[in-house]
Specification:
The structure holds four protein chains of four kinds.
Chain A lengths: L1 H48 L12 E5 L2 E10 L2 E12 L4 E9 L4 E9 L13 H4 L5 E2 L20 H27 L1
Antiparallel strand pairs in A: 1-2, 2-3, 3-4, 4-5, 5-6
Chain C lengths: L16 H23 L1 H24 L10 H11 L7 H13 L15 H12 L6 H4 L12 H8 L9 H5 L12 H13 L6 H20 L7 H6 L3 H8 L10 H21 L6 H15 L12 E2 L1
Chain D lengths: L6 H6 L15 H6 L4 H24 L9 H23 L1 H7 L10 H11 L4 H31 L1 E2 L2 E2 L14 H25 L1
Antiparallel strand pairs in D: 1-2
Chain lengths: 190, 404, 318, 204
């Protein structure tokens, strides 16, 4: 009996100490990790789609609420004037959700470009939607363009052999288009 | 591939000259002291020297030595032949064999040097092999042709002797008419393709077992059956053996007295250095290293192979071509077995039923890597046998320890 | 008087490893000649280089591992030749050398040499180079610069990218006669069939794998074709294009990496055929034959277990 | 191990005598998975060394307290704690490396080398020896990972730490940075590692 109590006590103590230690480390690194994620995951894509901005896009990120939902948006500024906005929408692909960041030029109302943030598509096949040869399809397109793959009557050249993934990206872009007027309103308000 | 066809040839039987000296072999060296004969003693034809060993001649014992033959060491008795045969009185003629019980008949036949298995219970099908099992051998068809009149009586004898329900005559397809005339209403006919290894008794048995898997089988060679009949008719022991002798100068069927050394049949001046004398089939037989080897009841064929035709094993790595598996008449996975045997994994060999091998030699005949497959199989069989004995020893030791 | 003593059998069928390989090489000669006739000096260059590399690398590896050098059995020549047969004409010299070396080294020698390779060495070499340098395996580019009297596009690539409409102008008889772009020798369908039938007739390979492979390809392609002939190509087209014919007769039948039991062979061949079509239709590669064979090679030890149990009869001699 | 237990012996044995993974044949999973590039291999090695060192120290120092029946559970908890610390720190300060190593950082927990050393060495030896052992084995492992990843990166991508080092027209042998290339590379190296001592003992 004594042995059992000792086992329980020792394990509890070890686990508790470890728990506290981990909590402390977590606390200490939390903010830095968040910055790193933004810098390395969203950063490159945001910088690409809003490439002619003069401000620090990651630092100037903001959360706004549209129709009761919060969205993380990145506002690009030129000469301290906001000229473009980018935000992420997702759509279901072949292997899971594909997160697509779409940049909009709010002055001219065009799509500046897109970047793929997250995906779990088949390497070498669906994963090729994140290559620039595919994403460049969307550069500088007007909002009323048909954001569909060519098989569906749109203008987008699908990645060969990966129509499902290509369609998913298009559908995410179309979702962004729906949201864009609301977000533009909010930014203009500011 | 015609090399493996079972030959057909019409030959006359040549009576081999009577030997001046015969050699009577007794397997093993232990029997030597128990022999009931002395040097200088006079033997008569048919006299029992040791259970299973008979004198095939009348003459004087010259010496008792030991000698090695391919399968084992032997105690050999040399007998100098006297002119006339004097037959053992104990062997009597029984032309009407149904007057005796099967057990009495059997005793008489074995007394007359026939060597039939004593255990005849539980046999319901007997087949008589009248097809030569091996290429080059011509003995069985010769006997069939020579004694076709006696055959149906022979079937009756074997049926009576074993009380079997069914007697089957296995005969080559070409001799079909001869066979169907001989069987009468006593026996059934089984036709065999004239291609090695179809004539092997194991494969004939397999064919019967495929039709009736519960049959308890036994077989007898046609020559032995005719000998049995002759013994009962004439009251004399079996002292002659028909042998096909295939030398460079030609093929002959000789009637040879048992115990004749083969040097009496194959003259030494016919041989070149590095020839090979094969006793038995070219695929199964053993190479002879001693010209004193006597003719015994088991020898059907003596084949002299020229130096140029002698095949040397290469024993290259197995290339896994699967030819051996394809030709194996008993469906063994020869390539695996031999590689396991090569690396001493004998339990694996046992798992692959290596003991079912009938050693027909076809696998090694076809092996493109020139591997000595039959030897690997023999090694595996032997090791399995020995290891089983060891296992038995180990278990008994363990159990005694536990008892203490 | 000296007598020779040895163990039975005392006869031999007089077929040895070198003879088997020699005849397999002879069977490839029509296809080799055809490819040299079609593509000229470049074809000869690839073939000669592959064979030379195969032989030299076997000598070097065997010397290094202190094993007997066995190039006289012809297996290295066969590997080099088969490797050349499935490569495009335009293969650069270094790729041929590396590929053939890998065939011999990774494909065979590190497993213990002839007869020990678990996978077809030729395909191992091919697969490694195919993954490493995919650009050089673009068969459409291989025919650039030749004045060919037939459609110079690789039929399977056309099928993959454009669907059935694109391959309408390939006459099946042209495909059979080798008037198509493909590997050096693997495009010469009729010549490979001639060679294949020769080795089958002479008994160097058995009928099980070629037949079941063919049946597998035709059956699987027919299933797709019958469900929707506007989307899937017809079965005979699948049979005559790409590496199917060379695979059927020369690659799938590799002794060491294919099963040795009859039913194992049949399942193996069917598997190769079915996987070929599945890979052609659903994978990113235009042709699936070699990967199909490679995958089935891995099942060989399992397929070898399909075996009739030996009959162990006790018979008594009277 | 008949040799005297000295700090230097315990430290240096991990570099040749029981060099992981070639001698111990442990820790093959990260070995195969993260050695595409030298940077990854080295990062993984250092992370493993850190965990190995501290888990060995802690386990050795509290070995008398831990009851035998729950020792594996305790070891795992301690090891897991250090692994998570490594993961968090790496995420905060070396994010790009963290991204490349991905799932294999959490999997350090089940790297057999760490639990193996804890069980086979740290739980039986004093702190200073355990620390030397952990550091030595860890550095040996790092060395092996560096070695194998250098081979794979140089051949497979033509680069070393991301710098082009092969000649201009070099066509990367991409097979080497694919998974099958890892297996073949490891297999050949293992064979060579077995060949060398055989040769040495043969010479003796």
């Amino acid at each position: 009996m004594k042995e059992y109590i000792r086992m329980v006590v020792v394990l509890t103590v070890i686990a508790t100490v470890c728990g506290f230690l981990l909590a402390a480390v977590r606390k200490g690194t939390e903010t830095r990790i968040e910055e790193q994620v933004l810098l390395y995951v969203q950063g490159p894509a945001v910088n690409k789609v809003l490439s002619s901005s003069t401000n620090d896009l990651i630092q100037d990120r903001q959360e706004i609420s549209v129709q009761g939902q919060d969205y993380l948006i990145f506002v690009g500024e030129r000469n301290t004037q906001p000229w473009a906005v980018a935000f992420e929408r997702t759509a279901g692909g072949y292997g899971g959700d594909i997160g697509v960041l779409v940049g909009f030029d709010i002055e001219r109302d065009i799509v500046t470009g897109i970047g793929i943030l997250t995906h779990s598509e088949t390497p070498g096949l669906g994963a090729r939607v994140s290559e620039s040869i595919f994403t460049d399809n969307f550069n500088n397109k007007t909002l009323n363009a048909n954001f569909n793959v060519k098989q569906d009557g749109g203008f987008v050249d699908a990645v060969s052999g990966a129509t499902i993934s290509s369609r998913a990206v298009c559908s995410a872009v179309r979702k962004s288009l729906e949201l864009y007027p609301e977000i533009k309103k909010e930014i203009v308000k500011q | 591939m015609d090399q493996l066809a079972l030959n057909r040839n019409d030959l006359q039987i040549i009576e081999a000259p009577e030997p001046k000296e015969v050699i009577l072999p007794l397997k093993g060296l232990e029997g030597r002291d128990k022999l009931r004969i002395k040097i200088g003693q006079r033997l008569i034809t048919g006299q029992v020297l040791y259970p299973g060993l008979y004198s095939s001649v009348t003459g004087i014992v010259k010496s008792i030595d030991s000698m090695s033959f391919p399968d084992d060491d032997y105690t050999v008795i040399r007998v100098e032949v006297a002119d006339e045969d004097e037959f053992d009185e104990a062997i009597k003629a029984e032309p009407d064999f149904q007057g005796k019980t099967p057990a009495e008949l059997l005793e008489l036949l074995n007394r007359a040097n026939l060597g039939i298995s004593e255990d005849l219970a539980d046999i319901d099908t007997v087949f008589v092999t009248a097809v030569d099992p091996d290429p080059l051998s011509l003995v069985y068809q010769q006997v069939l042709k020579e004694f076709k009149a006696e055959l149906s009586e022979g079937f009756k004898l074997i049926k009576y002797l074993t009380s079997a329900k069914r007697v089957i005559l296995a005969i080559s397809e070409e001799a079909k008419e001869l066979g169907s005339a001989a069987i009468g209403d006593v026996a059934d006919l089984m036709l065999v393709k004239s291609q090695y290894p179809n004539g092997l008794p194991e494969l004939l048995a397999q064919r019967i077992a495929e039709q009736d898997s519960s049959a308890k089988l036994a077989f007898i060679k046609i020559e032995k059956l005719i000998s049995a009949l002759t013994i009962l008719k004439e009251g004399k022991p079996a002292i002659y053996k028909l042998v096909t002798v295939n030398t460079k100068s030609g093929v002959n069927n000789y009637r040879v007295r048992l115990g004749t050394p083969i040097k009496e049949i194959i003259k030494e001046d016919e041989l070149n250095n590095n020839d090979k004398i094969i006793i038995g089939s070219p695929l199964r037989g053993a190479a002879c290293f001693n010209l004193e080897t006597p003719v015994t009841a088991d020898i059907d064929l003596i084949y002299v192979q020229d130096t140029d035709e002698v095949y040397n094993y290469q024993n290259l790595q197995c290339i896994n071509c699967g030819k051996c598996v394809k030709v194996c008449p008993v469906n063994l996975e020869v390539n695996l077995i031999c590689r396991y045997a090569e690396f001493a994994l004998f339990e694996r060999c046992a798992e692959l039923d290596v003991n079912a091998c009938i050693e027909c030699g076809l696998c090694a005949y076809y092996c493109p890597s020139g591997r000595a497959l039959v030897q690997f199989i023999r090694l595996a069989k032997d090791e399995i046998k020995q290891q089983n004995i060891e296992q038995l020893l180990v278990t008994t030791e363990n159990s005694t320890e536990e008892d203490q | 008087m000296k007598l020779i003593v040895s163990s039975p059998p005392h006869w031999h069928a007089k077929i040895d490893v070198a003879k088997i390989h020699l005849h397999l090489i002879i069977a490839l000669i029509p296809a080799v000649l055809f490819s040299v006739y079609t593509y000229g000096i470049h074809s000869a260059r690839v073939i000669a280089l592959a064979v030379a590399t195969a032989v030299i690398s076997e000598i070097l590896i065997r010397r290094l591992l202190k094993k007997p050098v066995t190039i006289d059995d012809g297996s290295a020549i066969l590997i080099g030749l088969l490797f050349a047969m499935i490569m495009p004409t335009s293969t650069p010299y270094w790729l041929v050398v590396i590929g053939t070396f890998l065939s011999i080294f990774i494909g065979r020698e590190i497993f213990g040499g002839l007869g020990c390779n678990p996978m077809n060495p030729v395909i191992v070499g091919w697969a490694i180079t195919r993954i490493s340098w995919p650009n050089y395996f673009n068969l459409d580019l291989a025919s650039v610069g030749y004045n060919l009297d037939f459609n110079y596009r690789y039929p399977l690539a056309l099928l993959k990218s454009g669907g059935v409409d694109q391959i309408a102008d390939f006459a099946l008889i042209d495909l059979l006669l080798g008037k198509q772009v493909g590997g050096l020798g693997s495009a010469a369908a009729i010549f490979l069939v001639i060679g294949g039938v020769y080795i089958l007739y002479r008994g160097f390979i058995t009928w099980e794998i070629p037949l079941s492979f063919t049946v597998g390809v035709l059956a699987m392609a027919s299933i797709f074709w019958l469900t929707d002939s506007s989307q899937y190509a017809n079965p005979v087209f699948h049979l005559l294009t790409g590496n199917v014919i060379i695979g059927i007769f020369f690659l799938a039948t590799d002794f060491s990496s294919s099963p040795f039991n009859r039913w194992g062979m049949i399942v193996f061949g069917l598997g190769c055929g079915i996987l070929t079509i599945i890979l052609r239709i659903w994978s990113i590669y235009p042709d699936g034959v070699l990967f199909a064979i490679l995958i089935m090679n891995l099942f060989t030890p399992l397929l070898d277990k399909i075996h009739k149990k030996p009959l162990h009869l006790e018979i008594k001699e009277l | 191990m008949a040799k005297a237990k000295s700090i230097s012996y315990e430290f240096f044995k991990g570099f040749w005598e029981i060099l992981p993974p070639f001698r111990l044949v442990l820790g093959l999973c990260p070995m195969l998975a993260v050695t595409k590039y030298v940077e990854n291999g080295l990062g993984m090695g250092i992370a493993t060394t850190f965990v190995l060192l501290f888990s060995n120290i802690i386990i050795s120092s509290i070995k008398s307290v831990i009851p035998k029946k729950v020792r594996i559970a305790s070891y795992i908890v301690i090891i897991a704690t250090f692994v998570v610390i490594v993961e968090l720190v790496m995420q905060a300060f070396f994010y790009s490396l963290f991204e490349k190593l991905g799932i294999f950082i959490p999997l350090i927990v089940v790297n057999c080398i760490i639990l193996g050393r804890a069980e086979a060495f740290a739980s039986k030896n004093p702190i200073h020896l355990s620390a030397a052992d952990g550091l030595g084995i860890g550095l040996g492992y790092t060395m092996s990972l560096f070695f194998i990843s250098a081979i794979r990166e140089i051949l497979g991508a033509g680069t070393f730490f991301g710098m082009h080092i092969m000649w201009g027209s070099y066509e990367p042998f991409a097979f080497m940075i694919e998974a099958p290339g890892a297996f073949i590379c490891l297999g050949l190296l293992l064979a060579m590692m077995n060949l060398i001592p055989n040769k040495l003992s043969g010479a003796n």
